[in-house]
Amino acid sequence: MDEFLSKRELLDKIHTARADLENALASFTDAQMTQPGILGEWAVKDILSHLIFWEQKMLHRLQTSIVPQPAPGETWDAMIDRMNDENFRATRNRALDEIRNKIRESHAQVLAFIEALNEEDLNNPEKYAWHRGEPIWEYIRGDTYAHYEEHTAPIRAWQSAITNQKSKILMEEK
């Protein structure tokens, strides 16, 4: 991993990964966006809600330095799984248009926050003590471009499966 990342480089990586995600979403109909099954019970819109959730958690942590802690006897991974499930249950019935608006709003908030950071804050491993001596851009990476990339792959696979299913139906009708 790079030791130094300029604000421009970070923003470029975010813009690139976000554009790839949006390109993957572009071919979905509204019905496909809300169809469960992409990741278990999740629909594409639930993945978008998940991205919003973690972007907002990241912004809150960066603004307050309040770090969630696992419950006694709970591991970090179990806590994250629980938080993901709680978010899914809380947002699964939200309208697609609401999710679309919120993901645009959340992304704009993330970009504005990063724009307000100076290079020193972004790369100073001591600035955010809770981040265990790592520069904060590495934390931002995890809830922005790396997270978009992580979820773009299953979205593309889901779209491919839908396309293949349609092709199969068309072939059977001939």
Brief rundown of the structure:
This protein is 71% helix and 0% strand. The chain contains 8 helices and no strands. It is globular, with a radius of gyration of 18 Å.
Query: How helical, in percent, are the residues?
Result: over 70%
Count of beta strands: 0
Radius of gyration: 18 Å
Task: Show unreliable segments.
Answer: none
Calculate the mean pLDDT score and round it: 92
- Strand % is under 5%
- Main beta sheet, described? none
Shape: globular
The number of helical runs is: 8
Beginning-to-end CA distance, first to last residue: 53 Å
Q: How does this structure look, described?
A:
With about 170 residues, the chain is mostly helical. It contains eight helices and no strands. It has helices at about 5-25, 30-35, 45-65, 75-90, 95-115, 120-125, 135-145, 145-174. The mean pLDDT is about 90.
List the helices and strands and how they pair.
Elements: H1 7-25, H2 30-33, H3 44-64, H4 76-91, H5 96-116, H6 119-123, H7 136-143, H8 145-173
Helix pairs in contact: 1-8, 3-4, 3-5, 7-8
Structure keywords:
174 residues, mainly alpha
